[in-house]
Specification:
Bound molecules: zinc ion
Number of strands: 13
Helix content: 25-40%
Distance between the termini: 49 Å
């Protein structure tokens, strides 16, 4: 796991195992807030750093959304209060519980963890949380999933975006239209840093380009998915559409970028097909 101090009392963690997934922590004098948990195989590294090195317990965990690589480490902190979208709670109680059971069959490590859904939930507006001298604003950023939320550290203008912002936007199970709105909104927030759910931290001078690149990528895949409708073999056509042609690097996200891109294309195509059939 990589670790970096982003500003005073604000830390960033990045997985060295899975798709450069990230997590964050904001440290107060008595306790800390953890934002996402990485995959459970790495959660204890964060726990040791916060509780043994910095000697602060984790009182709150904010789950950016229900996906395994962000929220399955919750059970490492049995005393923490979990905050998330109300839909995140719902999905963790249903989808995540059965997914964990299934994953545990091949991976004994997972048999010792449990899905802990958010205790405090919301589905619109903002939740404010004060930790030491920092004010956190937690708000909805749907697109990647309908239960996505992000966390702004107000004083530092650092946004922990979760998967609402990634090196390659991923909208399977989410909504392209919502993702466009969210990225547009993030671009206007006058931020110092965007902490992406996967990938490296984006610095102030890079934010405009990163937003433009993600918006262009989404428009590009939308166009490709529509073009596939006119092809004799749409799936073969989609498969031939390299990620680089949509303006993104094949080598980002620990090598899974092309796979995410192909999943995006297929999901969008199926969605367009469903809409056409319903008309
Ligand atoms: Zn995700």
């Amino acid at each position: 796991m990589q670790r970096e101090r982003v500003s005073e009392n604000v830390y960033w963690f990045q997985s060295e195992v899975y798709a450069q997934v990230t997590a964050g922590a904001v440290i107060g004098p008595q306790w800390a807030v953890l934002i996402d948990t990485l995959i459970p195989q790495e959660t204890s590294l964060i726990k040791d750093f916060l509780e043994k090195d910095l000697m602060v317990p984790v009182r709150y965990i904010i789950d950016s959304h229900h996906h395994a690589d962000h929220s399955w480490g919750n059970s490492f902190f049995p005393d923490a209060i979990i905050i998330g979208h109300s839909l995140c709670r719902e999905l963790m109680l249903t989808k995540s519980r059965s997914a964990l059971e299934e994953a545990g069959q091949d991976n004994p490590f997972l048999r010792d963890i449990a899905i802990v859904p958010p205790h405090i939930t919301f589905s619109e507006g903002t939740i404010s949380l004060r930790v030491g001298k920092k004010q956190l604003q937690i708000f909805c950023t749907s697109g990647h999933t309908a239960d996505s939320i992000s966390v702004l550290v107000e004083e530092d203008r650092i946004l922990f975006a979760g998967d609402a912002f990634m090196a390659v936007p991923y909208i399977v199970g989410g909504s392209l239209e919502e993702a466009l709105k969210t990225i547009n909104h993030i671009g206007k927030m006058s931020l110092e840093n965007i902490v992406q759910g996967h990938g490296d931290i984006i610095l102030r001078g890079e934010i405009e380009d990163a937003c433009a690149s993600n918006l262009a990528y989404l428009h590009s895949i939308q166009k490709i998915a529509k073009a596939a409708l006119r092809r004799r073999d749409p799936l073969q056509f989609l498969q031939a559409q390299d990620i680089e042609a949509s303006g993104k690097s094949r080598v980002s996200l620990g090598g899974v970028a092309e796979e995410l891109h192909q999943n995006n294309l297929r999901a969008l195509f199926k969605e367009i097909l469903r809409e056409r059939e319903a008309e």
